[in-house]
Specification:
Largest sheet: 8 strands, parallel, barrel
Structural class: alpha/beta
Distance between the termini: 12 Å
Number of helices: 7
Mean pLDDT: 83
Helix content: 10-25%
Number of strands: 23
Length: 434
């Protein structure tokens, strides 16, 4: 059996299991952000932009040398003659239709910046441009609304045009922070519009970078876990996590009693003969349990409250952050389901740490004696769940299992990793969890 005191620092690594693909997925709604660096000269700001996850940087033609390596340079061109002096790799943004047309005819990616001061008279121009399929268009609407962008997205449903809006939004100045303005834009119609972000504060650029990374769809490796023990443990407090998002029948949360990992607990999307479904809910488990959250955090279920965030995971390991709308804590009969995961299915760093400990134990054990009471080629995880038929776990075969009907030998889906947390954040330390 593994020794929980063995620790190394490691991020999640893929496994070869059929349920654990590692895929790079885009920002939620595939919405990019670009940095508006026109007139910016502060070295600290540019260093922060270079480290950021913005895709492109907008500058004046004379400032193209300031664009960090690895970022797409976009020149804001105001005169036709400036086009001839641009490097071939630069894109062009302009408020002049003739300049856009010439840049596009010359083979450059090009788009318009359209300022809308009056929705009734100005928005139709934005609609017209979006319908014709330019490379991109920045529609700067000063009003605090996203509904016009829903219309623009609908107009570009099957077109290559990338739509962005400028942030800060004039109509939200002093009311909603620039970061939240940007995140709201990313969520428009679920597809999202991009953001042309203008700031001279390095902290704001860092904050937007963190928040964009936070809302990325991530991936957690899921592996088969064979049930070795089922214990009926009597009354305990369990937590129902009600989110502000609808989940699918393939989604749920990862819940476990130790930092070594957890089991896949399903959302309430499966038939109940006596009550309606609660597609926003996961009947998650005992109050002491861990639940996996965004940004490589593990949280206690007892900490869940309105406004908290957790990861919603599907049976392929794709994970998205969802917001908790309510946590219900009630006394219910609990069952502890304990399962083992073969070392062959765990991340390489975790496997190496466990195997090193086991080799040391074998080295001092006399011939003919057992090294441990349980198999040493496994990692063990467990979850305390409400002991009721309507609480379900995801099987390794992609079929759900009722918590009351799980038996030793059944195979469930699990996630395993190297433990070691302080207030939910990863830390390298020696830890013993039993």
């Amino acid at each position: 059996m593994h020794d929980p005191s063995i620790l190394v620092s490691e991020t999640h690594a893929p496994t070869n299991g059929k349920h654990s693909p590692r895929v790079e997925t885009p920002v939620v709604a595939e919405a990019p952000w670009w940095f508006d660096g026109r007139g910016a000269s502060e070295p600290e700001l540019w260093a922060t932009v270079a480290r950021s996850n913005c895709e492109a940087v907008l500058v004046l033609p004379a400032e193209l040398g300031a664009v960090p390596t690895g970022k797409q340079a976009i020149a804001f061109v105001e005169r036709v003659e400036e086009l001839e002096r641009l490097p071939p790799e630069a894109w062009v943004m302009t408020s002049v239709e003739e300049i856009r047309a010439r840049a596009s005819a010359a083979g450059r990616r090009a788009g318009l910046l359209i300022e809308v001061h009056d929705l009734e008279s100005g928005l139709p121009r934005g609609v017209e441009v979006c319908e014709r399929g330019d490379d991109f268009v920045v529609v700067d609407i000063e009003h605090a609304t996203y509904i016009p962008y829903e219309l623009l997205l609908a107009k570009t449903e099957h077109k290559r045009t990338r739509i962005l809006r400028s942030v800060p939004i004039k109509g939200l100045d002093g009311h909603v922070g620039d970061i939240h303005q940007s995140l709201n834009a990313f969520a428009t119609l679920e597809r999202g519009v991009g953001v042309l972000f203008r700031s001279r504060d390095p902290a704001a650029v860092e904050s937007l970078t963190r928040n964009v990374a936070h809302v990325r769809t991530s991936s957690l490796p899921l592996v088969p876990a064979r049930v070795v023990e089922v214990l009926h443990t009597g009354l305990g407090h369990r937590v129902c996590v009600d989110t502000t998002s609808m989940m699918t029948a393939e989604e749920g949360m990862l819940v476990g009693s130790t930092g070594w990992g957890g089991l896949f607990v399903c959302s309430e999307n499966h038939y109940l003969p006596h009550m309606n479904l609660r597609e926003f809910r996961v009947n998650a488990g005992g109050v002491h349990s861990y639940v996996w959250g965004p940004n490589d955090q593990i949280l206690y279920l007892s900490e869940m409250k309105a406004g908290s965030e957790v990861l919603c995971v599907d049976l392929h390991g794709n994970a998205r952050p969802v917001t908790v709308g309510r946590a219900k804590i009630e006394r219910r009969p609990l069952v502890c389901i304990r399962a083992q995961v073969a070392l062959a299915d765990v991340p390489a760093a975790l496997r190496a740490a466990i195997e090193a400990h086991e080799a040391a134990a074998r080295g001092v054990t006399p011939d003919g004696e057992k090294v441990a009471a349980e198999p040493q080629d496994c990692v063990y995880v467990n979850a305390f769940l409400q002991n009721d038929w309507h609480v379900r776990l995801m099987g390794a075969d992609g079929k759900v299992r009722h918590s009351t009907l799980v038996r030793p030998g059944d195979e469930l889906l699990a996630h395993v990793e190297i433990p070691g947390r302080h207030t939910g954040l990863r830390v390298t330390e020696h830890i013993l969890e039993k």
